[in-house]
Amino acid sequence: MHLLIGLLIIACLFLSESTARNAPDSIHANVVAVLALTFLVPALALLQTVFVSRLWNFESLDQDERASISRRMTICHTAVWIATSLMISGWTGWQNLVRENLGLKYFPVLDDLLVVAPMLVAMLLSWGIFFDLQNTRARKTPDTVKQMNRPGRFRSWLPGRDRIKFIGIRARLYLLLALVPVLIFAILRDFTDLSRFPPAVAFSVLLVVATSLVIGFPDLVCFIWNIKPVECRKLRQELLEICHKNQVRVKDVRIWHTQNQVVNAMVVGLVPWRRIIVISDALLERFTRAELEAIIRHEAGHIRLYHMPIRLFLVLLPLIVVGLAEAASLPGVAWTQIVLASIGLPILVAKTAPAVAYGIYLVFSLSWISRRMEFEADHYAATTARDASGTQSVLDALLRFARLDPARFERSSLLHPSIRSRMEYIGSLRDLSRGDLSRAD
Fold first, then answer.
1. pTM confidence score
2. Which of 50, 99, 106, 353 has the most CB atoms within 10 Å of its CB?
3. Please, are residues 29 and 106 in contact by the beta-carbon 8 Å criterion?
4. SS3 letters for 383-429?
5. 140 burial level (CB within 10 Å; 0-12, 13-18, 19+)
6. Residues 6 or more apart in contact with residue 28 via CB below 8 angstroms
7. Is the Cβ–Cβ distance between 337 and 304 less than 8 Å?
8. Which residue ranges of the chain lie beneath pLDDT 70?
9. Helix (H) or strand (E) holding 285
10. Which is nearest to 405 in space by CA: 259, 258, 261, 257?
11. How far apart are CA 103 and CA 400, in angstroms?
12. Cβ atoms of 308 and 366 closer than 8 Å
């Protein structure tokens, strides 16, 4: 989701720059078009919620069926959100109204924020509407659904404390982490016109900013995601001891406070003395100590096998190639755009084609490599335990993940294979080790 939101923000800003024209004549028509497209997204969310809660017999569905319905709704809603966001940036002239009519092109970052504001508002409102269905999906009892079907249901869509907290956590989790790095480079662009400097100087400035962002990324994530140190000293020492035994250097192991909305763990940071391992509060509360140690070993495997640098290299590879081509006066992005326009493609399509191609490359390359990395990290976690129970603890942890989110058992995500395939792989390792022991006997 972070990748999708980040790419969409960049695409909207790119479209706003590529389609910039003079100030629009019909301001009211432009505003109406932007408002209509913006509120179309939460209106669809409202329609989906009403349809599911009133027309479907949601009470009789089990958790798997609820998850399946929720997934189909999410795909449909996301497609509409992407389409309306791109239409606002490339068709309505919203960017011209912001920068020309309102005169905000001279205000650093503010104009960029207002350009992408409609897509952000649409998503935030949709999350608020989906709050009830999200809770229903997570529960095994139909109490929430009965509450959804009661008379006067529309009043429960008014902002409440739980709903606002839900939106806030989602905004921290998905929007801010994707938005902040983009805004940092927008600030650099607005305050420093790098085109005035020699290429070596411009590249050096960008390199310093990128390096600072990489080093400070763990602190940025901790601030945005409300990540705090582990309060229990004994638990913290035990988790750090697992890292040390696996020869993994980390600064700390910390807790991600999500009000039990997220069950996950991750490595944050590339630089060893700045790197941290993050465990969500729900994971810490619902998993046993052995399962928690297996998860830490899994994350240690990502570090030991250099998965994060490999992913970063895949992301930067096309940008490096294009940059070197431009520096050597070889055909680059501008040349590609001219060729596409010369064969009869619309100007907007020709200008956006390189960005679309890069986005497709990111989706397919990261999906392919990330799923294989998960198998490698599982293998590492199963084979580096202190005793023979390492494989079983990994299986137990995966099974508990499946119980908490049954849809993940059979379904692969963009960056993760299905839990079933991961358990089958770990099971094959256990069978193989047993076969080796029997042959040794």
1. 0.77
2. 99
3. no
4. HCCCCCCHHHHHHHHHHHHHHHCCHHHHCCCCCCCCHHHHHHHHHHH
5. exposed
6. none
7. no
8. 1-3, 18-26, 53-64, 66-67, 134-159, 188-199, 202, 323, 325-352, 387-388, 430-441
9. helix 281-286
10. 261
11. 55
12. no
Do residues 24 and 101 lie in contact, with contact meaning Cβ atoms separated by under 8 Å? yes
Comparing CA positions, the residue from 376, 386, 388 lying closest to residue 422 is 376
Dihedral pair phi/psi, residue 385, rounded to 5°: -70, 160
Pair 305, 377: CB distance under 8 Å: yes
The answer to whether 212 and 181 are in contact (CB under 8 A) is no
CA distance 9 to 162: 28
Structural contact between residues 401 and 263, judged by C-beta atoms closer than 8 angstroms: yes
pLDDT tens digit string along 328-386?
A: 666 655 666 666 666 666 666 666 677 778 888 888 898 999 999 999 999 999 888 77
- The secondary structure of 257-274 as a DSSP string is --TT----EEEE-SSTTT
* Number of helical H runs and strand E runs in the chain: 19, 4
DSSP letter at 55 equals I
Rg of the chain, C-alpha, whole Å: 24
| Token representation of residue 217 | 């990324």
Q: If you search the block for the tokens 């932007």, which residue do you land on? A: 34
